[in-house]
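Task 17 of the worksheet. Students: predict the tertiary structure of the chain below and write it out as structure tokens. Keep your answer in the requested format; marks are given for formatting as well as content.
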Amino acid sequence: MMACPGGATLTTECMTEAQYDELLAAVRGHLESLPETCTASNCPQADWAGCVLRMAGHDFMDFANGQGGSDACTDMSDPDNGGLPACLSSGEHGISLVEVYQSYCATVSLADFLVIAAEAVMMSTRARHLAQASSAPQLDLKSSFRFGRTTALSCAFAEGRLPNPERGCHAVEETFVDNMGLDWTEAAALMAVHTLGRAQVSNSGYHGWWSDPENSRRFNNDYFVSLLAKGWVPERAISGNAAKNQWERSDVGRDTSFDGHEMMLNTDMCLVYSEPGPTGGPVLADVHDCCGWLTARTIAGAVASNGGEYCGGQPPEPRQERQRCCGPQQGDCGMRDNPQGPAAQAVLNFAADETAWLQAFVRAWTKAVENGQTNLKRLGDCSTTSTSTTSSSGGPSNTATTSAAADVSDTTTTSTAPDAVTTESTSGETHVQDKVSSFGCLDLCNCCTIAVAASTHREDWYSANMSPATAGLATSLFRRLGLAQSAPADLSLNILETHCGDALAASELLPLPCVASYTACDFSEGMLSCAEKRLGGRGKCVVGDSTALPFESASFDRYVSNLGCCCTSDLTAKLSEARRVLKPGGLAAMSMRIAEQEGDTSFALTARTLKPFGYPPQPDREGLRIGLDLDLLRARLRTAGFEDVTAWRSWVSVPLQTLDDFMQWNLGQPPVRKFLDGLNEEQREEALAALRGAAAKPLAEGAVQIGVAVVSGRAGSAP
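Model answer:
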């Protein structure tokens, strides 16, 4: 299909910046030679750009277990790849990609070429957007590009690996998170490739634009804006095919013509919206009769990005919003003021802030196109020395030349904090003997601090810095438990929070009408003394170990543990106790830290920076859990007696804007503060200077990122 008259090279041996620019310009010129016409029935630039980008995506989405990825091996007989030959070789709107490829195929592998072609259409369509929005951020893909991909001659293993949109977020998690190594924020960012082009029945079985036609030839954040600032209802059996179901625009601004039809797939909608009810599973068009919409107040950033337009017009009075967005459609897809999808917060952020989206997109794109490849090199590096390796788990390489700040692995062989002794048990768990002092654990998160005395707890710093992050994660847990302002008061729920710390989460729980009682449990008396002050008599504080809780069986309706799993020496006992104290049908949700990667800007960065000065001090506590395989975690919950078990990964983000913010983040950690206080004046100044020097990356990203895993389940009929 992509023939090379003189014989194609399988691996690019050398590529300079000038050669990359030339190839990029050639593809851009091809795209930009198409007519400027862009109507609902005819927008050739959107169609061709979308096809080229779809080709690159289908190429890398078959990556799993170290096989596949961007290797230019795609089965064109697979119905999921329908329509791709048109832009590649047979000609779509009169042009094909092979016309450009044949000028470079003797020196550039097809695997590299397809990645560059995709980057070219994104750069071209981004330039079109910038021409209309000059203050919008630039897109830089060249800086992270590396060449050296080898074109694969066969890939029978890839059959069936492309995600089926009908499966919604189960497919997203399997392909993007589990196989490709992205987190949910990165998966959502990458999904914005849907902003280019449209779906056609003849190609994929689906029909419509993800946005309006003009925005569908601009690489921008309008995909996220459309998800939020428009209403969506199920549309079933597309073109009479019961296996193809999608969501159609439902608000007053919808185009009712066939050509102007706007739609979303299950894999789009599930990022934000969830099914009604306490478990909040992903929405599916063929299953759920609900309207996906959010209040104007909830999506103020998206509305601003949309020129003030909300569901087809100016925001109405709040009581009229649902009618404007949904019409007579019955039922909401989840909480209209509190979306519960696994990437809801990321989508809200991306719709309001293109810079945040582009940063996450470049990170996700780099991982996606580098999975499965070895010996990738920077432009201009034509030596024979390898500059990257593929990790043992088959995921993205963790090298200095890879943008992997948010890389997450579900395996038990993940990177750990520096100077940690890792031991793997026969059960598959990884324990890390961190170097912590008796002052507290290295993981200074509000709800998992070990033995921090009340006198050393800086509540003022938490309130200003950690509260938004840890409370935000707690909010996510509460959603999984059906705890919200809209929950009816007659539920009268008894809540238990273990590893409660200073009960920061209680400030959100106690005002809820559905909460009858709140019990805070922690094995640190110092933290509980802080909790008692916060509660002011409105709840009960109990000293206790989560592996042997001092409560009668079936005492509680809800169990929450926010970032508490990381300091539980016996996770099996913790889960069993959680099931024991829950009433049958009760819900549990808990979070835990996941393993640090070298590119992270979290606690591992602090440890690496201060390592030359002797930090952390010698350990006095073993068993601090840093990472656990999510499949194993799901199995543990089921073994403990839980049903409807779900597990996913996310990130807690602590915003940083200035160098002072970064220093407050470090000095606000009691182990760090105590360590620095123990240095002499000269050493202390050198250590502080080193910390300031480490601030560049987190300040560039605007936040410290803390990786977390979240699990939830329903207590079965018997413990």
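Marker's comment: Residues 110-132 form the longest helix (23 residues). Residues 421-715 form a domain with the Rossmann fold fold (CATH 3.40.50.150).
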